[in-house]
Amino acid sequence: MTQKKTLSFQAEVAQLLHLVTHSLYSNKEIFLRELISNASDACDKLRFEALNENALYEDAPNLEVRVGFDKEARTLTITDNGIGMSQQEAIDNLGTIAKSGTREFVSHLTGDQKADAQLIGQFGVGFYSGFIVADKISVESRRAGLPAEEGVRWTSGGAGDFEVETINRPERGTSVTLHLRDDATDYLSTWKLKSIIGKYSDHISLPILMRKEEWKEGADNKGGEMVLGDQWETVNQASALWTRSKKDVTSEQYQELYKQISHDHEPPLAWSHNRVEGATEYIQLLYLPAHAPFDLWNREKAAGVKLYVKRVFIMDEAEALLPSYLRFVKGVIDSSDLPLNVSRELLQESRDVKAIREGCTKRVLGMIEDLAKLEKDEAASTEDKAKFARFYGEFGAVLKEGLGEDFGNRDRLAKLLRFASTQSDTASVSLADYKARMKEGQEAIYYITAETLAAARNSPQLEVFRKKGIEVLLMTDRVDEWALNYLSEFDGTPLQSVAKGAVDLGKLLDEGEKKAAEEAAEAFKPVLARLKEALKDKAEDVRITTRLVDSPACLVVTDSGMSMQLARMLKQAGQKVPEVKPVLEVNAEHPLVKKLEGSDHFDDLAHILFDQALLAEGGLPDDPAAYVKRVNALLV
Ligand code: ADP
Description:
Elements: E1 5-8, H1 11-23, H2 30-50, E2 65-70, E3 75-80, H3 87-95, H4 100-107, H5 113-121, E4 134-142, E5 151-156, E6 161-167, E7 173-180, H6 190-200, E8 208-217, E9 224-234, H7 251-262, E10 270-276, E11 282-288, E12 304-309, E13 312-315, E14 330-335, H8 344-349, H9 351-376, H10 382-385, H11 387-405, H12 410-416, E15 419-421, E16 424-429, H13 431-436, E17 445-449, H14 453-457, H15 463-468, E18 473-475, H16 480-484, E19 489-490, E20 493-497, H17 511-534, E21 541-544, E22 553-556, H18 564-572, E23 583-586, H19 591-596, H20 602-616, H21 624-635
Parallel strand pairs: 2-8, 12-14, 17-18, 17-20, 21-23
Antiparallel strand pairs: 1-6, 2-3, 3-7, 4-5, 4-7, 5-6, 8-9, 10-11, 11-14, 12-13, 15-16, 15-18, 19-20, 22-23
Helix pairs in contact: 1-5, 9-11
Residues 38-39, 42, 80, 82-85, 93-94, 124, 126-128, 174 line the site of adenosine-5'-diphosphate.
């Protein structure tokens, strides 16, 4: 490619650009943070690649970022001597959106500018943010290791297309030149730029350089002015924030680093910064975000911790550093022990990594426990008190995955769980709260799983519990069913699903009730036998129950069986599910059930009982038309 070529932006880029230029007015200055962040990433990448190929440094081993401006030309230029881009990379990286997360984000845009601006604030717009202040951007770059004649110039006005051409560029790395819009004159000032860099980029470990200003006397001694001199000075602290001592870092700086690594506009709920010493030495800086990312449920991705080794950036999204159920945590781990050339595969096997992972897991659980303590702390501010509920609302469901994934911390996790219950509409009941309220003689923690809170609350299975005033936890998260398999007891008390197995209220029933139930069962035996025969294709068994008060019948599964709800969920997800035949339990006291014995329509009634029980717990009859026919026949 020697001649200029004009190429079109990928559709999503054009969409993003339109939005950036039309709605991101409130916080323009972030463009500088984004561009410096890219420059810093580029230097990190060079340092990393150079571990195996020292020649990439090309006699310029001091990595740095320079920020310069030209008042006359109205341009602002950010230059780095990082990895640079080849021609093809410039086309790909600056013309398309490669990251699926960003693409997904763009697909959430509605076209409503206000709503979109809100959304975009939650997301790093990266390079394209330059167009907030510039009506033209020109990027010149050469990739480390390529000859000078293989440089590239990329230019665009931020509309539908961009141009690329080959240039000669002796210096390795990238310069991004912004041609400032009329309303962006502010940024042609050393003072202004320094203050933005101080605010957003102080923690960057690379030196950021600007030209020193000098006083220049005016002609004929008529005043004078500050002008840019030839000397460059470092304008940031240039030491990675996490390597500093806690007392030297302000809350604002911690929050700024968080925003930078998470692209989240909201401050984190909590963070923890520690230098861990002992057999394995590392620095951990971990954050709990205030809200969940779009792709929280994608277990494949979204690990949020960056790995550094002795200050050298090694990789993003180092999933080996935290278990998957803590994938929402953001932060930085800087190890002193790992080799610089560590690979993802190596990470999986390293003993040091195992120690880091355990240490970080404990630290994160500790942070969450601290939020839970704040909730109950009289002295805490309203804002601090609300943090745990906020956290739990966003991440509680993911945390539950830990029950199945992290046996070592199961007890700690169980204490952090909160549920809605028959006594609380919000997910605020802890297992300990529940235990403290258990009735005299109650031997289990009862729960029910359902798709919605309303379905759980209205389930016939709860009738006897309600009558006896026994609290039941209502579980509606998709993972509950699975996660609860791993939590058979809490603090010595078993957890028992009210929809599994026969209910054994044990000591909660008095002698009179037990006797009456036994007698009813005896008298009902012949009817039961007929019911079993009539429903033999649908029900595993039919039995009499004491769990129902107002309803004629309900369905349960055997103790070891998969719940019907889980089976439905798996089926919807397209998975093969072993055919589960439920058990039909009938309430011998119910008028409809009493009617069975002398009825001429025994079979129809039996099927209706079964199908209605299925409907009541959220399922659908196998043959809805047949169900309707039977009901109508009886109605007539
Ligand atoms: P992000 O940084 O989140 O990946 P950007 O839109 O900011 O997204 O940048 C897109 C890509 O362009 C980067 O991933 C990187 O590959 C490339 N890029 C941007 N700025 C530079 C730079 N200064 N040096 C080298 N590559 C860069």
